[in-house]
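Quick start: what a row looks like.
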Amino acid sequence: MDINQIFNIILQVLKDIRVIGTVIVMILVISFAKFITTYKKKPNKRNKFISKTKTSKPVPQKNSISEKETQ
């Protein structure tokens, strides 16, 4: 066998529909497995907002105009 026949056989194998389908399925499986292993649940923003508003008291704000000027 010379080098041209080897490349011809390799090309025929890579063009086979079963090889192409298997590669696509394996890429999808590996991507899904990576997604599952690296998944982190996002914190619920609604619960965080509600807990902050229940525990915090409003801070009184100072008026920019003093009381003496208004009298």
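That is the whole record. The helical segments are 3-15, 17-38, 45-55, 67-70. Residues 17-38 form the longest helix (22 residues).
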